[in-house]
Design goal:
Blueprint: H1 6-10, H2 14-34, H3 37-60, H4 67-93, H5 118-131, H6 162-171, H7 173-189, H8 199-222, H9 227-253, H10 263-267, H11 271-281, H12 289-294, H13 301-306, H14 315-328, H15 338-351, H16 389-392, H17 407-467
GO molecular function: oxidoreductase activity, acting on paired donors, with oxidation of a pair of donors resulting in the reduction of molecular oxygen to two molecules of water
GO cellular component, one term: membrane
Keywords: Coiled coil
């Protein structure tokens, strides 16, 4: 099941966690105090470059009856839509640039180039997801309501089709997110889902209508004879943007190591424990400067979840300090290549489409679902609580090396223990098989000896009859 006692899972004392929280607060203060002209120039250059790129792409599509022009225009438009969605719309709506007090680049005024409204997305994402990250029953983004991404969610026959649902979601990601955010807003505001003409529905319909009219009516008509090619180009650009946004989001939230938490843990959570939950519940993927920019710097998903309202161009420098803290407290820093992280998420989607009886690992030590119970065999108590930690669990410092022994060391030992357990189980299976074979061999020998005795007796009796 999901993590209930984050102290026990992280192998940190409450004092350790509070100190970690203070160090993360210090990182926030340092970055906030250093924000200035360099950052303002960065976001304004990004906005200007995105708009130029989009305008150039749309202008090129006037000649899109030529294949080369169609390819070039579609490529420029796709990149422009990705930048607007990831580095601009997502991050501006998080309030990352509100400190500039620029009414154009402000979370309260920016409307992104997506089907759903920024307002509905902010209520569902900024509040629900970033407050309750991976808390079961609280975080609506955990599977987006259609995918089973943890064994803590009870399996239903409908989950058998989630591999197909995943493909549909990837291709129509902006619509999936928009409908998800619309549903979340209705839930938060108490609006009945059956109330057709509710304010959330009206806001969604207005925004979706504008988007459809812009991409599939207005711009195609403007290009005159090339309207069919422009229509295809807009649809292709939207598809590419959807697939990229989907991949970035799934790589940051659903690979192995992005842990889940119970409501019991959240009930008494401190600010420092919130930080720790963000670190354990998120995952990064490795990216160079270009890919990082195209992902809206969400390749630094851990840093984004720690500081969602800090400008994204600062995440690389923050990441270096967060890594140092992970080393200091012996915590995992979950990262990997984009391909690896997505394949892990993809495997989870397909694996959890099946009922639990077809899965080998338990709900406490599966790659996609883990809890403090996985370490029970390594501790001197079965399930340590935070108060029992210092006395009964791992020592904070390894006396042999002088280094802290935390979650990373515990996971390494758990992996060794799991391999040893598997080896012992295989050995026990071999021994049991050998015992069965030996028993069968003994039974065969007994039967053979019995048959020989019976044959000897039969022969002896036959000779006696012949003698008589």
């Amino acid at each position: 099941m999901a993590i209930t006692d984050i102290n026990a899972y992280a192998h940190l004392t409450p004092a350790d966690i509070e100190t970690l929280g203070a160090e993360l607060d210090a990182i926030r203060r340092d970055v906030e105090q250093s924000l200035g002209d360099r950052d303002a120039k960065y976001i304004r250059r990004t906005i200007r470059a995105q708009r130029i790129l989009e305008a150039a792409g749309r202008a090129t599509l006037f000649a899109s009856r030529k294949r080369s022009a169609w390819l070039l225009g579609t490529a420029m438009l796709s990149v422009a839509k990705i930048i607007e969605n990831m580095e601009l719309g997502h991050n501006i709506s998080h309030g990352q640039w509100d400190w500039m007090n620029d009414p154009e680049i402000h979370s309260t005024t920016w409307e992104w180039d997506m089907t759903g409204t920024s307002g509905q997305w902010k209520r569902a994402h900024n509040y629900s997801h970033h407050t309750y990250t991976n808390v079961l029953g609280k975080d609506e983004d955990l599977g987006f309501g259609i995918l089973r991404m943890t064994r803590d969610e009870q399996w239903k026959p409908l989950h058998l089709v989630q591999p197909l649902a995943n493909l549909v979601l990837a291709a129509t990601f902006e619509w999936g997110i928009a409908l998800h955010d619309l549903s979340a807003e209705k839930l938060q505001t108490g609006v009945s889902p059956w109330q057709v003409f509710s304010e959330p529905n009206k806001a969604f319909a207005r925004k979706a209508g504008r988007q459809v009219a812009k991409d599939f009516v207005l711009y195609p008509l403007l290009t005159g004879p090339a309207w069919k090619q422009t229509l295809k180009a807009n649809a292709t650009a939207n598809l590419i943007r959807n697939l990229w946004a989907y991949a970035v989001i799934f790589c940051g939230h659903f690979p192995d190591g992005a842990e889940k938490f119970t409501e019991e843990h959240f009930a008494d959570e401190t600010r420092a424990e919130w930080y720790l939950r963000q670190m354990l519940g998120s995952a990064n993927f490795q990216a160079g400067p270009a890919m990082a920019f195209m992902s809206g710097n969400l390749c630094y998903q851990i840093e984004h979840h720690l500081f969602p309202d800090i400008p994204s161009n600062r995440y690389p420098e923050i990441a270096a300090r967060v890594r140092q803290l992970c080393d200091k407290y012996d915590l995992p820093y979950t990262t990997g290549s984009l391909g690896k992280q997505y394949l892990l998420a993809f495997r989870t989607i397909h694996k959890l489409a099946l009922p639990d009886r077809f899965l080998r690992r338990t709900a406490d030590d599966a790659p996609e679902t883990s809890s403090e119970r996985k370490f029970a065999a390594l501790s001197r108590v079965s399930l340590p609580t935070a108060d029992q930690w210092a006395e009964n669990h791992w020592p904070g410092i390894d006396p042999r090396t002088g280094h802290r022994r935390g979650l990373r060391s515990a996971m390494a030992e758990a992996k060794v223990a799991l391999r040893e357990k598997a080896r012992q189980e295989k050995q026990a299976l071999r021994e049991a098989r050998q015992a069965l074979q030996d028993k069968a061999r003994e039974e065969q020998q007994l039967l053979r000896r019995k048959a020989l005795r019976e044959r000897a007796i039969w022969r002896m009796r036959r000779r006696q009859r012949q003698a008589n």
